[in-house]
Amino acid sequence: MGWDHAAEEHKYDDIRMLVHHRSRVHPPMSLWDRAAQFSPFAALSGHEDAIRETARLTTERAELSESRKEELNEQLVWLREHPDARERVTVTYFRPDAKKAGGAYVTVTGAVKKIDEYEKTLWMEDGTVIAIEELSAVEIPGKDRYEEE
User: Fold this and answer.
1) What are the DSSP calls for 17-58, one per residue?
2) Which of 81, 83, 93, 149 has the fewest C-beta atoms lying within 10 Å of its C-beta?
């Protein structure tokens, strides 16, 4: 009772040379759609997104020294007193991540529109609102020029 190779080779000889049927009504399926029928079923939907999210790196917020906080405060006071110097300020701040612990340090350059002492926020002209407690650096180009005047 072995496997009969000869019988297996000639199993479909009777239909091999027949012309393949083509519908006159339905267009043939594209190779892309045909391949999609055999793609693996995604039993764990969202699993790849979860893995990608876990792999995404975040940075921990650095704790600023008291002297650095004081320096930042002095720069904000100076900016409040010199509104004409607000045109081109570079601000680096910590943006907490919405989905996981940590965040990223972001640097923006532009005009400071408003310093809100009550809300403790810095409003940039492009619409960016920065919590003052998240600031890590404020660079004011040409600050010396304003102090000489």
Assistant:
1) TSPPP--SSSPPPPHHHHHHHTSPP-SSTTHHHHHHHHHS--
2) 149
